[in-house]
């Protein structure tokens, strides 16, 4: 099966993520991108490339081994691709997390213009 341009973009995106190359990853987005992300708040939040770099740089400080394992990609039409992946990492206290995430990317003219992520943002309470 032929790999679409959007699938190649997504593959490159996760390579940059897993190499912690935040600037390269942020440059795959449009100048300003619409995000839906429970960690950013309700509704659609606009983020610049610089804000994307800052967000992931901070996350990387907390979880130095931050990693995304892509489970499956689902191309949808010309502009959209859905990616199912598991994000994982280890916190300073050595606690580990694994978080299943689904993201819908809108890709226009080779750049990500929308990043709508869905995941459970509820903190687990210690028993």
UniProtKB/TrEMBL annotation:
InterPro entries: NTF2-like_dom_sf (IPR032710), SnoaL-like (IPR037401). Residues 10-113 form the SnoaL-like domain. Gene3D superfamilies: 3.10.450.50. This is Nuclear transport factor 2 family protein. It comes from Kaistella flava (ex Peng et al. 2021).
């Amino acid at each position: 099966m032929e790999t679409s341009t959007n699938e190649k973009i997504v593959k490159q995106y996760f390579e940059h993520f897993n190499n912690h190359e935040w600037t390269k990853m942020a440059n795959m987005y449009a100048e300003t991108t619409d995000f839906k992300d429970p960690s950013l708040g309700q509704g659609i939040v606009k983020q610049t490339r610089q804000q994307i770099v800052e967000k992931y740089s901070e996350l990387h400080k907390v979880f130095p081994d931050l990693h995304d394992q892509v489970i499956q990609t689902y191309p949808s039409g010309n502009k959209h691709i859905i990616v199912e992946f598991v994000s994982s990492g280890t916190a300073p206290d050595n606690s580990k997390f694994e978080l299943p995430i689904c993201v819908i990317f809108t890709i226009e003219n080779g750049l990500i213009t929308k990043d709508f992520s869905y995941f459970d943002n509820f903190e687990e309470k210690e028993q």
